[in-house]
Write a structure and sequence with these properties.
Two copies of one chain form a homodimer. The first copy, chain A, is built from 16 helices and ten strands. Chain A is an alpha/beta fold and about 350 residues long. In chain A, the strands form two sheets. Chain A has a five-stranded parallel sheet, with helices on both faces. A five-stranded parallel sheet of chain A has the order 7-6-8-9-10, sandwiched between helices. In chain A, strand 4, helix 7 and strand 5 form a beta-alpha-beta unit. In chain A, helix 8 runs antiparallel to helix 16. Chain A is globular and about 55 Å long. Chains A and B meet through helix 4, strand 2, helix 5, helix 12 and strand 7 of A and helix 4, strand 2, helix 5, helix 12 and strand 7 of B.
Chain lengths: ~350, ~350
């Protein structure tokens, strides 16, 4: 399957994820109810690290849990095992093969804290290391750039959160995610057109905030690995603490800005950036917000904020794919990269 | 004082920091010994966020403490207060004025967990919110780009770690930091020459790993805010999970690579990047490692790994300053920026 096939397959992959992880999540939730945790430690790299950022907002906002994104090299380079105390230790890796991620989960297992692997390979070393294993069930991902393993990782995290809440509305909302992804895919023709217009772009800023910070990070990574664009992702707040100096006339600013608690401040920032000549592309479900960009892409309406990053990444993936082609690069063969990265 | 004056003032600022924070650190250490914490939550943005990354390695490696870098917007945007349980909550901000950072520390205070402010303004809202206050005592920082407040923040964190350990060798090593910074400043002529040669650079990759990941992040931020370079910082491991696709002939790769547990893997990576045509600038205390770059800058020898980031940032700051001038930009007036950033 090609990268585009895998992007388009995401509604089906999401259906498979929903069909596959119910039991393991129920078991983990029972464990967390019996012995609550004070902290979640997540080890992940690359695209999976962006799923970890989503988990930080999800578990922080809904469950008031502090989430520490582990520095895996503390274990792998310095040989030091954190004291996990009352933590849930999570490893996220599509291949489940990266020794540094496995090392963190193994350390949790030895301390007898609950451990969770989120992986597309239930036969991987990461899955073997963890007490609980969520099989992404995304199907084989052959393209080097991860797409469906990202959206299914987010869906698994959202489902864990909803199961912890045990609220019928939230559980029902999960079931509507595949259809929302399907609707998001419908923007492909307009995205292809915009990508063609922007083919000369070789650097840009990508902004998101709150739940959509993960989307900004993942979008920027796709732009780097596929389209070879120096894409610099920021939360809107961090951006104002320095990198805003990069904005000069003509600099492309890609903004993930669905309507919500984070949108007002981001729209205000985009207005100031446009005054300074930035070339803003806005992804939003709101026509009024889309008007804050010179170009815009519409997102499907009526997706709850906590599930929206699973949907907003889809037009971003399509944009990265079409920009890659518009730049006469091969999306199936990102430079210098292999599918499985084994860092230590 | 100009930016360069403030860079050159860092040995004196470090002396002032060492002279000022002994008592508050002793009080905090007594509190942490009486009632140990399981977790450190740090809220910070911009340059201060890089001090937080240093703290993540320092406290993780030496004290086995998980460190969560807070997403301040969970408090400020979503209005949700984390359950801090057995955490130490830290806010780092040179101005102490950013409401989102203050909000996290106030939330900790209300939960009666220990709270620490690290700030250059002991009369700031952040200092008022925290139970313990480390005054950086860096002296007024007038340049928009933070330099001496960064190195003194790192020194304060190192001192907290050393005081927790209560090991005479570590405490003595701290006293030698100002002299090591002084030696690091001696490279200015060679750094100025290299910056002049690289004046046309408008994008680059910055690599570091382990303790020096914070340096890579901070160096890249200085390059963005001062020299307007799209500088993309990565830990060497994360870099291999995607962004390595950006490397093509002529791309500048700036590497912070002092000899240590992280250096072998990074030197090997730099070798591969050079084969692909990358233009490598290596900062190292080892002549053998410096030879892995086309250009190199020497770091003072015999600085222990845990204190080295306080020293390695100095040539990086000088490089950013001289590159800014070489690019005919004004280092005293970064575009679009004010000294105090109040994000919510």
């Amino acid at each position: 399957m090609s990268l585009r096939d895998e992007i388009l397959e995401q509604p089906a992959a999401a259906e498979r994820q929903l069909a596959s992880s119910r039991e393991v999540i129920a078991a983990l939730v029972a464990r967390l109810r019996a012995r609550p945790v004070d902290l979640v430690v997540i080890a992940a790299r690359g695209t999976s690290d962006h799923a970890a950022i989503y988990a930080q907002y999800m578990l922080g906002t809904v469950h008031r849990l502090p989430v520490a994104l582990a520095a895996p090299s503390i274990v792998s380079l310095y040989g030091v095992v954190p004291r996990f105390a009352r933590a849930l230790v999570v490893g996220i890796s599509q291949s489940g093969a990266s020794p540094d991620i496995v090392g963190v989960v193994e350390a949790g297992r030895r301390q007898d804290v609950p451990t969770l692997a989120i992986t597309n390979d239930p036969a991987s070393p990461l899955a073997a290391a963890a007490e609980y294993v969520i099989d992404l069930a995304a199907g084989p991902e052959q393209a080097v750039a991860a797409t469906k393993t990202y959206s299914t990782s987010l869906l698994a995290i959202a489902r864990l959160s909803a199961a912890l809440l045990d609220e019928p509305d939230s559980l029902a909302a999960l079931e509507r995610v595949p259809a929302a992804i399907e609707r998001a895919l419908a923007v492909e023709p307009e995205v292809e057109q915009i990508a063609a217009e922007m083919a000369a772009v070789d650097r840009c800023v990508v902004l998101g905030r709150g739940y959509e910070y993960a989307t900004a990070r993942e979008w920027a990574l796709k732009l780097k690995e596929l389209a070879r664009v120096f894409a610099d992702p920021y939360s809107a707040a961090d951006f104002e603490h320095g990198p805003v100096a990069l904005v000069e006339p003509g600099v492309p600013v890609l903004a993930v800005v669905p309507e919500g608690v984070a949108s007002a401040g981001l729209v205000e920032l985009l207005g100031r950036l446009r005054e300074r000549g930035a070339d803003v592309l806005a992804l939003s479900d709101s026509a009024a917000i889309r008007a804050s960009g010179r170009r815009s892409v519409s997102l499907p309406p009526d997706v709850p904020e906590w599930l929206r990053p699973i949907v907003t990444i889809v037009p971003a993936q399509l944009f990265a794919y079409h920009l890659t082609r518009a730049r006469a690069l091969d999306p199936e063969a990102p430079r210098n990269l292999a599918k499985v990265t084994r860092t230590r």
